[in-house]
């Protein structure tokens, strides 16, 4: 019951944050939510199914550019909500087209194969200017659901005296999409598909003996991961409001690997925690660069390290520490901390049991400690 109370309190806190924090913190939260959705997808593929992928950025790009093209001009000009769904489906189709490779190849060979997707995708994004806008990218059409626009438009929306602009409105869309990701991913991983993927990761021979179709489950995990990445790409595009090809490069795929390793492989909550850490750290360091030692503000002259480079150094240190001392990541650390607290509370004697009654006599008195 206590876990449910904590989760409910956390959800209430997320819902009231736009009433108290400024646009910068909401932007950080939106980027973290988008990253968490993509990290959950990669964790299904790499953490649960045990398949290494370095091409996650490609499927984020498919979702982002798919939404922009489907909802924008030039393009079909579909309703944004329909364009979002079709963009996720498009990312799943892209994953399905690559799934025969994922079904046959595994380990580092699959990682190298997916790495090719990043370079191919970057070339396509630069070349297909009618769809992607080329090097300069494209502006992102605002999301609209049922006549409500998730952008700062007239008439102005005011809630409890707080003007709700684009960030405030997108905040609740991000919460809804992240909750949908959590609900579906946890249901899949706790059900028969999740157990089959775990068996596939632990031992392919044992999984085959138990009747698990290796090729089908590998392909399914890749398609599912691609669809989560496509949804993350849509939310990321809405938060950025303009997308460019250079963002969806190899560095983004490496960031997603860092998220799931730091957060904890095979855990939805761990993927979310790792996404928040990896996403928020460079933004916070850029904002407070003038107050941090050895860190220079973006574009400032000198030999100090920029916030992006400094955050990547910290990622590296965090990954090394996690691999050495906590292989199950932040989620494992939190789980062990909760277990220690529960054991400590269960072992603590109640006041009535700790104080002997006056009528209990000498036999009921505790033994004195002899040093």
Protein architecture, described:
- This protein is mainly alpha-helical and 371 residues long.
- It has a single domain (9-344), classed as ABC transporter involved in vitamin B12 uptake, BtuC.
- It has helices spanning 2-16, 23-48, 56-71, 80-104, 108-127, 129-132, 166-190, 192-202, 204-209, 214-240, 250-263, 268-287, 307-325, 329-347, 351-354, and strands at residues 138-139, 144-145, 148-149, 157-159, 162-164, 242-243.
- The strands form 3 sheets. It has a two-stranded antiparallel sheet. Strands 2-3 form a two-stranded antiparallel sheet.
- Helix 11 (250-263) packs across helix 12.
- The longest helix is centred in the middle third of the chain and has 27 residues, at 214-240.
- The protein is globular.
- The chain starts with a helix and ends in a 17-residue tail after the last helix.
- For this structure, the CATH topology is ABC transporter involved in vitamin B12 uptake, BtuC
Order of helices and strands: HHHHHHEEEEEHHHHEHHHHH
- Indicate the percent of residues in helices: 55-70%
Outline the biggest β-sheet: 2 strands, antiparallel
Kindly give the count of domains.
1
**Assembly status:** single chain
CATH architecture annotation name? Orthogonal Bundle
End-to-end C-alpha gap = 43 Å
Q: Evaluate the radius of gyration.
A: 24 Å
Low-confidence stretches: 357-371
Please write the CATH class name. Mainly Alpha
InterPro entries: ABC_transp_permease, LivM-like
Transmembrane segments: 24-45, 52-70, 82-101, 108-126, 170-189, 221-244, 256-284, 313-334
Main location: membrane
GO molecular function: branched-chain amino acid transmembrane transporter activity
């Amino acid at each position: 019951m206590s876990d449910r109370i904590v989760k409910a309190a956390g959800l209430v806190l997320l819902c009231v944050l736009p009433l108290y924090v400024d646009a910068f913190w909401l932007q950080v939260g939106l980027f973290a939510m988008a990253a968490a959705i993509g990290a959950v997808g990669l964790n299904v593929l790499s953490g649960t199914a045990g398949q290494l992928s370095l091409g996650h950025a490609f499927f984020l790009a498919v979702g982002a550019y798919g939404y922009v093209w489907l909802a924008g001009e030039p393009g079909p000009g579909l309703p944004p909500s329909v364009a979002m769904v079709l963009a996720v489906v498009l990312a799943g189709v892209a994953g399905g087209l690559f799934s025969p490779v994922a079904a046959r190849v595994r380990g580092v060979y699959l990682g190298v194969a997916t790495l090719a997707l990043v370079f191919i995708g970057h070339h396509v994004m630069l070349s297909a200017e009618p769809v992607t806008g080329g090097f300069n990218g494209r502006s992102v059409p605002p999301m609209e659901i049922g006549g409500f626009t998730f952008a700062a438009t007239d008439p102005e929306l005011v809630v409890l005296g707080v003007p709700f602009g684009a960030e405030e409105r997108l905040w609740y869309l991000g919460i809804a999409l992240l909750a949908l990701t959590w609900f579906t991913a946890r249901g899949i991983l706790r059900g028969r598909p999740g157990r089959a993927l775990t068996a596939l990761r632990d031992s392919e021979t044992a999984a085959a003996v138990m009747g698990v179709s290796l090729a089908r489950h590998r392909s399914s995990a890749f398609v599912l991961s691609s669809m989560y990445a496509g949804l993350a790409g849509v939310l990321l595009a809405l938060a950025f409001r303009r997308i460019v090809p250079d963002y969806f490069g190899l560095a983004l795929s490496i960031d997603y690997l860092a998220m799931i390793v730091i957060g904890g492989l095979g855990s939805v909550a761990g993927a979310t925690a790792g996404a928040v850490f990896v996403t928020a750290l460079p933004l916070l360091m850029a904002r407070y660069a003038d107050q941090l030692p050895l860190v220079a503000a973006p574009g400032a002259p000198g030999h100090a390290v920029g916030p992006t480079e400094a955050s990547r150094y910290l990622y590296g240190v965090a990954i090394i520490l996690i691999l050495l001392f906590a292989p199950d990541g932040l989620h494992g650390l939190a789980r062990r901390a909760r277990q220690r607290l529960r054991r400590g509370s269960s072992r603590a004697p109640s006041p009535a049991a700790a104080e002997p009654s006056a009528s209990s006599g000498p036999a009921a008195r505790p033994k004195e400690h002899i040093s």
